[in-house]
Amino acid sequence: MKFKNIILIGLVAVMLFVAGCGDKASKDGGEIFTAASAKNTDSKIDVQILKLLVEDQTDHEVEIVEDLPASAQIFAGIDRDEFDFANLFSGEIYNNYFDEVEYSTDPEKTLEQAQQYFGEEHNIKWYDAMGFINNYSIAIKSDFAEENNIETLVDLEEYADDLVLGTDNAWIERDNDGYKGFKEAYGYEFKDAKGMDVALMYKGIANGDLDVVTAYTVDPQLIEYDLTVLEDTEHFFPPYEASLVAKNEVIEEYPEVDDIIESLVGTISTEEMTDLIYEVDIEQRSVKEVSEEFLKEKGMLN
Amino acid sequence: MELLQDYIAFWADKYASIFDYMLEHVLISLTVAIISIVFTIPLAVWMTKMKSTKLRSFIFNIANIFQTIPTIALLAIMIPIFGIGFTPAIVALFLYALLPLLRNTYSGMESIDQEVVEAAKGMGFTSFQRIVKIELPIALPYIMSGIRVTSVYIISWTTLAALIGAGGLGDLVLAGIGYNDTFMIFTGAFLAIIIALILDFVLATVENKLIKL
Amino acid sequence: MIELKNVNKIYNDGFQALTKVNVEFQEGKINVLIGPSGCGKTTTMKLLNRLVDYTDGEVYFNGKKIKEMNPIELRRQMGFVIQNIGLFPHMTIFNNVATVPKLLKWDKDRIKKRVIELLEMVNLDPNTYMNRYPSELSGGQQQRIGVIRALAAEPSTILMDEPFSALDPISREQLQDELLRLQTEINKTIIFVTHDMDEALKIADNIVLMKDGKVVQQGSPDSLLSNPANDFVKEFIGEKRLNSNNQLNDLSLANYINKDILLVQSDIRIEKATSSLIERKVSSAVVINEDETYNGIVSLYDAIENNSSEINSIIKKASLIIYENDKVSTVLEKIEGIHDIVPVLSKEDIVVGLLSVDKLFATLHHLTEYKRGEI
After folding, report:
1. Mean pLDDT across C139-149
2. Mind listing the domains of chain B with CATH numbers?
3. What is the C-alpha R_g of chain A?
4. Which residue of A has its CA nearest to B83?
5. Model pTM?
6. Do B116 and C76 touch (CB under 8 A)?
7. C160 forms bridges with which residues in the sheet?
8. Are C96 and C89 in contact (CB under 8 A)?
């Protein structure tokens, strides 16, 4: 992991260097923009869709920088004029960035706060949601859920004492929407909670070493390992609605790009995104191919 | 000043879990270090005595291969066999520690003047006596430097244990990255360095004591 | 006693290191194994403590077949000194010397006493050196420790593998002298490997000369020098050494007999003898019987002191008499510490003359100068 990150940082550095080497024009005489994505596949698909549409409808080109570790690195890139666009999630607003932000699990309020605070802080336009939600959620094996008729997180309580939770390394440490908050909201805790790599977390539940995992709602592993997401009846998890963001100075200068991004609002549902991710992560197809196919189906690309 | 106050507040808030992470980290590192030493040093000694150069390079190649397997892949292989948590972390880190310790001990033993070995043989040491009383003490500086280097590696690598649910300071670093909390990242990294320095100091002291014996 | 009978050594790769080696190492003597490199001398030595095992033949140690002995125990009964000293660098001098006694589990007091005794034996102050490490000692001092380490457990036999070859010439000479001195005290059976003929000639009681895994000749240094078995032996010993030895043996005693001497009859009066001595300007005369056989010697000093009439009262026996067909080398061995005149007699005890000591030493001096200059 560490090693991989070093390579990533190196790659990013090389890319940034190349990108910074003069404002070269695109083939058709337009601009060359840079779009940033974190390492999750849904973000990669989002910026790929942006790239495909921009390059289809304008003379501009878009280069993609992928696999950034987290949102903080994306914001840093934006502030340093290295990225023009990015895919981000509304729930990031509760990620320790602003002291004055009011915690809420209401999707609209969350999105509004993200648009307001991040917009001002980084001089960006935070568009309305793409349509899919990539929330934290809690999932268990489907057969276990069916056997015991567990549908909601409340139903899980009576079994919790015997269940081991696997989660990413951050969730245990998060304040409002982490394990601490969960225990307060639902009033129970698991036998043990272990932080780990997300890919290994799914292997762990498949292997029977874990009973409960914190999944993202679009994770294709939910399908692959036959897991059931339990209903968050207490509305504990804050919404993570995906939005594209763009630097204000870019869209002011190139309003055609602003139009394209606006046209993407509300185009991809959570189910659709899960299918797309499944194609990429499980079927091993390329992001570009899957994105193109999707846009063609939607009639947005010829 | 404000930063310092914030940082103090961070500690006040989290000291209990930081302490837990640190304890886990030390426990994992020391377990790996002890298992590697107990296993690898006799192995390296045996390798210097073995007649088959093929077997020897085979062992070195195996140790080498373990080093080159990407961490996440190695950990993924571990899960079906060892599950999640402490045990697979120990096994994976042990496999990583194999090569540096093996190499140092092996070259330490190889560096011994053959005249000295011959003298010991000719004076009527049994093989075991010769290894314990003559060869290991002479190779000690090499072996200890191998142990010191490897221990520092192990402490650094132990941050990877967080990937497989074994906890440790890696948890703090990764949580800090995921949660946009620089204090966590800094504290995790800083404490790992401190542990490494302390262990290195302890081992240096042990080395001096042993050499004076 | 150690005896090798028809020993062959063939390595796994088919190389025959030793062929039908028959050697007897004499008890209480310095036995030197010598030969050019690759001749099998070191291999032969290492057979004895089973660092190398032989293919066939038999090696006997005090009558027992060594193949039937436990190699570890066998080694502890033999001291072992190796070429590059091989002191244990991580141990003090005390612990180095005490190695084998410790392996044999001697009690502490006995070990300490023994180490001190040994250090004193080679003139190294125990208090100064006991707690030092080998690296703090000079090469010569280190090899002294190497030698006494081999002696520590009082083995009957000591194996020395080119022990002094890594030392500078001065230290080497000193250690050779010291070994000879020690040997007069300890009388061990020493097997000493070297490629240096001067060293062999200096220290050996018995030389075993090897070539290509075979024994070419064995015997005392004298016998090798005087009767080299073949051209290889001659060549290996070297013309110069053979010459200087032959020259010494070639020297005829006849050249060193002073025949122009004063003889007096045993029945003359002292006055007459005195006047003859004064007349001839010599301080001593040889007294002969009527049949010209040797009777004794008189000195001018005694003659003057004593005024009695008969010469009988002042006749003395000479400290040394030699015969005219004695070898020069034999004479040289006897002559040390003799200050009288040395009468030379014929087989029939008839006085031939006096040994000309000054002339003999002048010749010897010349010869040794020549030899040193050549080496």
Report:
1. 87
2. 14-212 (1.10.3720.10)
3. 20
4. A209
5. 0.70
6. no
7. C81, C192
8. no
